[in-house]
Fold:
Amino acid sequence: MDFIIGHYNYWVVIILMMIGFYIVISRGNLVKKIIGLNIFQVSVFLLYISLSVIDGGSVPILKDGIERYSNPLPHVLILTAIVVGVATTALALALVVRIKESYGTIEEDEIHQQDHSL
Amino acid sequence: MEHISLLLVVIPLIAAPLVAILPNGRLPWLVTTLVTVICAILASTQLWGILHEGMISYELGGWAPPWGIEYRIDTVNAFVALIVAGIAAATLPYALLSVEKEIPKNQISLFYCAFLLCLCGLLGITQTGDIFNVFVFLEVSSLSSYALISMGKNRQALTAAYQYLIMGTIGATFFLIGVGLIYSQTGTLNMADLAERLPAVFERRTVHTGFAFIVIGIALKLALFPLHLWLPNAYTYAPSVITIFLAATATKVAVYLMLRMLFTVFPDGFALGTPIYGLFILLGFAGIIGASIYAIYQIDVKRLLAYSSVAQIGYMVLGMGLASATGITATILHLFNHALMKGALFMAVGAIIYRIGSCRIDNIQGLGRQMPWTFAAIIIGGFSLVGIPGTAGFISKWYLVLAALEQHNWIAVAVILFGSLLAVVYVGKMIEALYFKPAIESNLSVKEAPLLLVVPTLMLAIANIYFGLNTDLTVGVAETAVQMLGLTTESVAGAVSP
Structure:
């Protein structure tokens, strides 16, 4: 029981990851897919940040009287990954705008229909 | 000399924003060509240096690894970097006319900017020795290739790019999860350092999970058979130049990354304890046969070649799955040879699209007689794809068959040969339409493509023959590369069978 509660942030990560992944796979709406993708990515950010925590560790800012610090490296890594995620989302939304302009819809099945009726 | 490893990445990176602010027209093309030629020269110098002087380790910003990012170049990287830079340099002369025809005039400088970023990302993956850095470059190259694919003429290009974006991002995120899990067990991101620290924690389940995430993430990027769904659409609807470049380089870099993970980062045969090799062999079989059959039924030549690419990736994965020195040699050889043949074929198809604006089987009938040089390139590329002796494709298939025979894996031999027969069918389908069918009336006035398109196409086609006859360079490099990956024939041959 302690194991389950002690690792609650990892459970959150797994649940978010599965929710995001499920949305990407199951939804036909292109914007909803992007939302799913974002949730999926955010769960990975949480995973990295959870990894960097050290028992009794303080914020990684140099200060007198503090011996243990959390590991700052995963934070830095995840800053990079967040930037990448923002860029991906921006590009995906731009694509959706263009798709809406040329197809008049952002539902995957309607787009397929239009492509196959050609 | 050692700065080359960094320059290869930095030059395209700095050139990209410069090209973006240049006025549309021929200037962006000129600058991009210059950059790719410089990169190709640097990449060959690098390979030459490594073959004669051994490995290079470059510390970025003077921070010693494993704290700083390290660029670690051995024969494998240097060879793949040369493939990427070489193909980019060969594509650029071709790009001038093709891009003017297919890309709206006001987007040309942005197009070349994205192209340079894609080149930077791909070269970055090959150069870096830091596993998180790999993720960053993976995303640099992927994001720019999504944008490039969406610039295709048809609106399907948009949905193809979107589909690729979703699958590519999932792949990259899987890779990121894997990296995180491994970092949590070892506390390092440097590949060489990981190779030293991982064996101590091989038993832990987290490491196994991380390994699985990394392998699946890369498998999505390299379009391993059941995960290839993004590839046919992306290759079909992308602008011709981008199809050539991506088909010849992007999946190759992913294959390199897979080799690096399987043999360098997880050393001492860690992967032997997992079902990965058996899986690779089975998926290789499925890819070779399944995708080849798909290819036969396509009515669009670009799509046909895209499915054929999936099948060819099947051969590379099969070579990896055999996990012997000969098998990996075959994979590395096929990396190079497939880049040559698909480069030549997609260039020839691009030349046809340049003339008639389409490449559907029923639209291109009889064009082979009117465009003899383009047709010659298709024949040579096609023969190479089938693996006829005297072409580059024969060499890699020969090594693959040798590797299968070494392990008495008769099924693999049969599948390789059957796959070649299927290739005969789809290559034959193209040649039949191009040469033996009567021309359509609207195409009667079509002339041979302009010299700027024909010359690069023929150069790649001739390279197919050259490297089919003179194998000193390719086989030599591939065998040294295999030694670098720490494989010897005795240590792994026969250790795995499906």
Chain A is about 75% helix and 0% strand. Helices of chain A lie at 2-6, 8-26, 30-51, 73-103, 108-116.
